[in-house]
Amino acid sequence: DRVRTILDVCTGSGCLAVIAADCFIHAHVTATDLSTEALDVARINVADAGMNARITLLHSDVLDALPPEQRCELIISNPPYGPARKRRGLPPEFRAEPDMALIAADEGMAVVRRLLRQAPDSMSPGGVLAIEIGREKRACERMLRLEFPGLVPEWVRTAEQRDNVFVLRREALISHPWRPPK
Fold first, then answer.
1. How far is CA 153 from CA 3, 55, 140, 169, in A?
2. Which of 9, 122, 123, 138 could be joined to 127 by an S-S link, Cβ 3.0–4.6 Å?
3. Are 72 and 123 in contact (CB under 8 A)?
4. How far is CA 107 from CA 12, 118, 133, 177, 178, in A?
């Protein structure tokens, strides 16, 4: 009941934004994506769910277009996290997606890194960031160890999977800021 502001970064079809608005009934959700085509699909899905009044769609490259004063209690993201070398081995349903929805530079961690760097400025005190990284836990942990020394995520276990979603609090991100690798 305390969550009033949620941000869904790299929303794609808007499904996480709709789920978040449904689960957190007092919250307003801002959903961002760089792809205007994805936002068009999200707009349809938000309308079909009857969530137009509670979900705002915003064209943004990660958090770049957010108003500087906007603060969220919860940021969720399923960003592109696949390294290019794994594109060919993806199941057919994934290969049908545009590359920008799946593939990211730096072993898949380029967008995750940007989100970790930018998120604290858009989070309320005590805010939580949850990011899905699929089967890229090793690449993610390597990036964290090298570029965010001391930052230890909490890995979430679900009924379907484990170790593909991690959670961090704003204070941990502030305490362990990005440091360029040497």
1. 21, 28, 10, 9
2. 123
3. yes
4. 21, 19, 12, 20, 17
